[in-house]
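Exercise: predict the fold of this chain.
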Amino acid sequence: MMGYIKKSTLYVETSVFGFYYDEKPENRDKKEKTKLLFQQIQNGYFTALYSDIVLAEIEKLTDDFKKHRLLELISRFGLRKIDMPSAEDELRLLSTIFLEKQIIPLNKKDDALHLALVILSPQIDYFVTWNCKHLANVNVFRRVKAAVLPLGYELKFEIVTPEEVIFYE
């Protein structure tokens, strides 16, 4: 008899939404992997979460058509909105640590907020992003651990790209 495997909970960061409609030839593979991830979310392979941070980033887009298409992915594929931690001060504190220690660049405050949110959300198994420069990067994650483990935080999640979390048939 096979053992039960808990359905993984994903936090889907904004960059993943962006690749769903990307038309650049050099991004074709990322687009295909992104579409497969969303299909697997819809088919119940994962519980997928998004946040107000994702919504705010999408709302910043000046192209209203693109903005509408990205927001529509949330309802079409059944992503659920994560409740922001009640400790909003803690969210801001953690994100400030990442910026001040230059783990995340100062001009990427939303990336620092995503990271802080996931740290404060123990139900998340995987933080899914295509941002390999500032997020899905082992060197960045090592620095994150060095900054927050001494403060008593546990990192019970992995930062991955869609390519690493999807099921391959």
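Check your answer against the key: Residues 9-165 form a domain with the Rossmann fold fold (CATH 3.40.50.1010).
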